[in-house]
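chain below, 72 aa
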Amino acid sequence: METNHNKGNKTFKITGNWELQSKQLKEKFSQLTDFDLKFNEGKETELLDKMGNRLRKNREEVMEIIKEINLS
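prediction:
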């Protein structure tokens, strides 16, 4: 029996203007800091983990929050 322990680790890419998105995230979630929102190309996992820790949300929830910001 094969078990996929990484099924929650979907590939996630930051698209669009991250500077603008991070400002919107800080407005919506005042507990987020510049450190939490610092993004380096190819380091999406670290960003999701930092945001998740600060917001007390899992990675999938953080991905949904970022997607919602992209749609607004």
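Residues 1-8 have pLDDT under 50 and may be disordered. The longest helix spans residues 59-71.
thats it, cya
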